[in-house]
Specification:
alpha+beta; five-stranded antiparallel β-sheet; seven-stranded antiparallel β-sheet; globular
Length: about 240
């Protein structure tokens, strides 16, 4: 399918997603939105094994029409609770840190949006992954910076962790705007899924090819792509259309 035909096919889906998103925004009040557990993280009291989970949920307000917010939750073997790591832009301009720890539970609704589980790793070897995740959190170069578009934002952070720990095999959704913003102005990098490569110009334009992600084209932070491993189209706003 040529790019022109692809775009003509995609535009109605983008329009539908935008209309649906605006309708949701019109009905919602984020201050009263649901923020309790979604019941997806195994209870630590009955789960002695190590657990790593990555979640994505539609962003708050108008950003949710196009983008998701992502985060990582970890529980070492025998730990009584999870530790949740994420980047949040609120009040960073007033001196608050961008990287927040345990602002909410591991699988909580994100202001009314039920999170989708992107990765779930448990058992043998996961404690070692958690140690590397925590080291990557400490090394994240934008701990006091945030920019909604094109990054660095919450998805830049999650993609950074995924590249540091490729064993997560994390396929971030096309709506994770900011995932292609490469720290330090880099142009080349491995893909967040760990089995691919990407070229990115400041998160505004680029190409990614990987086993987990398939083929993706980034235009102004918006992702168009084709998943080959689990056949699906990847589109801005609409997300992934194909095999669940």
């Amino acid at each position: 399918m040529g790019m022109g035909r692809w775009m003509r096919w995609a535009l109605p889906w983008l329009a539908l997603a935008a209309i649906s998103g605006c309708a949701v925004l019109a009905r919602s009040d984020w201050r009263q939105a649901r923020r309790d557990s979604s019941g997806q993280a195994p209870h630590p009291g009955i789960t002695p094994e190590a657990v790593v989970q990555v979640y994505a949920a539609r962003a708050v307000g108008w950003r949710g029409v196009l983008a998701v917010h992502t985060w990582i939750a970890v529980k070492p073997s025998g730990a009584p609770s999870y530790t949740r790591y994420e980047v949040i832009g609120w009040r960073v301009d007033r001196g608050a840190p961008a990287v927040r720890v345990n602002r909410a539970g591991p699988d909580n609704y994100w202001f009314g949006s039920r999170p989708r589980l992107l990765a779930d790793r448990r058992g043998d070897g996961v404690d070692a992954l958690i140690a590397r995740i925590e080291a990557a959190v400490t090394a994240y170069p934008y701990g006091s910076a945030y920019r909604t578009w094109p990054g660095p934002n919450s998805n830049t952070f999650t993609a950074y962790i995924a590249r540091a720990v490729p064993e997560l095999r994390l396929d971030l959704p096309p709506t994770a705007i900011g995932k292609d913003f490469l720290p330090g102005g880099a142009v080349f990098a491995t893909s967040p899924g760990g089995l691919g490569v990407q070229v990115s110009l400041l998160g505004l334009a680029g190409v990614l090819v990987g086993w987990e992600e398939g083929v993706e084209v980034n235009l102004l932070g918006l992702t168009f792509g084709l998943d080959l491993k689990e056949p699906a189209l990847k589109l801005p706003a609409a997300g992934r259309l194909g095999v669940p």
